[in-house]
Design a protein that fits this description.
By secondary structure, the chain is mainly alpha-helical. 68% of the residues lie in helices and 0% in strands. The protein contains eight helices and no strands. The longest helix has 19 residues. The N and C termini lie far apart (66 Å).
Amino acid sequence: MRNEGKISPDQFIRIEEWIINKGYRDNIPGHVLTVKLHVSQEALNQYCRKYFNLTFKETICRLKVLDAMDIMVREPEIPTGSIRLIVGISDRSNLRKAFLKYSGLTPLQWKDAITGKASASERL
């Protein structure tokens, strides 16, 4: 019987390359991704648990938020709505929820914090 409990070095490399190349931006469902990367769903889940301590779905969400934050730091002039589309988040409310979950701030609050601007509520 094959040991499904371990990620092979080849599987690890394929998953790592997919993350480095920002494959999560493409919104590929997990079952399709497993075929594309030639990894089992179990290996994908195990990778996410081991390296992110999150489920696959949570890992993808977190990677997208980190990607959006990176874009905001590098190119603060890009509107949040455009960044959302670049990183593959479907709508504004999903971006807001994800930012709140992983940073404790809304996208606008986070962007204002990194650019040194006061948010609208702080300006009142």
